[in-house]
Design a protein that fits this description.
Blueprint lengths: L3 E5 L4 H12 L3 E6 L7 H10 L4 E4 L5 H11 L3 E4 L6 H6 L1 H21 L4 E7 L23 H19 L4 E7 L1 E3 L18 H9 L6 E4 L11 E2 L1 E3 H15 L5 E7 L5 E2 H12 L5 E4 L14 H7 L7 H12 L6
Parallel strand pairs: 1-2, 1-4, 2-3, 4-5, 5-6, 6-11, 7-10, 8-13
Antiparallel strand pairs: 9-12
Bound molecules: uridine-diphosphate-N-acetylglucosamine.
The site of uridine-diphosphate-N-acetylglucosamine (UD1) has 20 residues, from helix 7 and strand 8.
């Protein structure tokens, strides 16, 4: 029997790719989304990839009655909770929106899960919980640090809430996946990242510059203590990341009152300049860029230890930064210039 899995934020960037992988692995993904940062057309594109109809419920995860109705109607065995605001800079200007949306949605979700005996949860967390790490690669034993943005703080608070609820909701098992930097798009070019307005993340800014939507990329600082002076991150292909969620559901199977957190990255650090150079190579495009000042809040370098994800999830990445940049470019080329 196929298992129903609720995917909140399932029309979003990581959510849509995860819906595709769930369907490929024999689950029935059910999307909850309020389309505040995604397009309804994404659903048809997901269906074109999976060859299946996808159930979609439009509404807010903060709306208890709505959530209760969806759970009663679909009887899910588990939830992958992506729905959240995610712009770091915006969160500084709108902290209450971020705390309300990201925290209240989780509270409502956990209440409804308890009331309906839905016992498996995969939560979208972020490597931002590690702040500036003392040692690299970052293992799950590395201490978390006080978040520098309200967005980052919502991820830390959410992890604590889930950990506490696992004690109180008998049967609940949950994992927080701490993502490093997701990039790329589905190789079909039917789904990908759709940032609204001027992107703050590197790769959409790179592809939009190459496509002529932006004049030039600014590299935020080249005087860091790294081999080429630019920041180092762990860029993971969104399809690999999506697959990690399916593996996490398998990991949760049969566990009760269980909470864990796992890094999801490639284990390899790549500098901003390496991203730019690799993009030029795979796309054949010359990228217009300049070196600018450091961006406030940027961590010099961070990349994941992937030992735990290999051990407990039996998962590792299969795709490279080259694959991700090629797929991001192919996706970009399908988008009409705004
Ligand atoms: C940021 C957030 C992280 C969040 C992630 C996904 C911070 C400190 N971290 O990660 O919590 O989960 O986004 O949304 O904000 N860069 C440029 N020029 C640009 C854009 C970026 O040089 O125009 C550089 C940055 O300085 C950084 C790298 O590219 O070194 C990656 O930046 P970005 O894609 O914004 O991700 P993070 O800042 O790593």
């Amino acid at each position: 029997m196929r298992k129903n899995i609720i995917v909140t934020g399932g029309a979003g960037y990581i959510g849509s790719h995860t819906v595709v992988e769930l369907a490929a692995q024999g689950y029935t993904p059910i999307i909850i989304d309020n389309f505040c940062n995604s397009e309804k057309a994404v659903i048809k594109r997901i269906e074109a990839i999976t060859g299946e109809k996808t159930q979609v419920f439009e509404g807010n995860c903060t709306d208890k009655q709505f959530m209760t109705d969806v759970f009663a109607h679909t009887n899910p065995v588990g939830v992958i909770h992506f729905a959240a605001y995610k712009a770091v800079g915006e969160s500084v200007n709108k902290p209450l929106d971020y705390y309300y949306n990201n925290v209240v949605s989780l509270l409502v979700l956990l209440e409804v899960m308890k009331e309906t005996h839905c016992n498996q949860l995969v939560f979208s967390s972020s490597c931002t919980v590690y702040g500036t790490p003392e040692k690299l690669p970052v293992t799950e034993q590395s201490p978390t640090q006080k978040a520098i943005s309200p967005y980052g703080n919502t991820k830390q608070i959410a992890e604590d809430i889930i950990k506490d609820q696992v004690v109180a909701h008998s049967g609940l098992s949950a994992v927080a996946l701490r993502y490093f930097n997701p990039i790329g798009a589905h190789p079909s070019s039917l789904i990908g990242e759709l940032p609204l307005g001027i992107p703050s993340n590197l790769v959409p800014f790179v592809t939009q510059t190459a496509a002529g939507w932006r004049k030039e990329l600014t590299i935020f600082g080249n005087n860091y203590n790294t081999p080429d002076g630019t920041n180092i991150r762990d860029y993971i292909h969104v399809v690999d990341l999506a697959k990690a969620h399916v593996k996490t559901l398998e990991y949760l199977n049969g566990k009760n009152n269980f909470y864990d957190y796992i890094n999801v990255g490639t284990g390899k650090g790549t500098s901003v300049l390496e991203v730019v150079n690799t993009f030029e190579k795979v796309s054949g495009q010359k990228l217009n860029y300049k070196i600018g000042a450091r961006r406030a809040g940027d961590v010099e370098q961070i990349y994941a230890s992937v030992d735990k994800s290999k051990d407990v999830l039996n998962w590792k990445t299969a795709l490279t930064v080259e694959d991700a940049l090629r797929d991001a470019w192919n996706w970009q080329k399908t988008l009409p210039k705004p």
